[in-house]
Amino acid sequence: DNMWKAILQHQHTNNVSKYSNLTNIINTIRTLPNSNADPERMFSLLNNLKMKTRNSFSMVSVNAICV
């Protein structure tokens, strides 16, 4: 990581980054989630709504699960 930090700190003589496109790409990649925990939670919640006893849920229960 120190290598990338050093590379991204290189600048032209007029204080403009040499690798501005690379910086943008790296910052975009850093915003991507690195796990699938959030989607798994959503699938779990959806499965709870679609289980066999879903017809016995009251509207209050369904609203509580969805929120």
From TrEMBL:
Origin superkingdom: Eukaryota
Residue ranges of domain HAT C-terminal dimerisation in the record: 14-65
Pfam family, any one: Dimer_Tnp_hAT
Gene Ontology MF terms in the entry: protein dimerization activity
Name of this chain's protein: HAT C-terminal dimerisation domain-containing protein
Gene source species: Camponotus floridanus
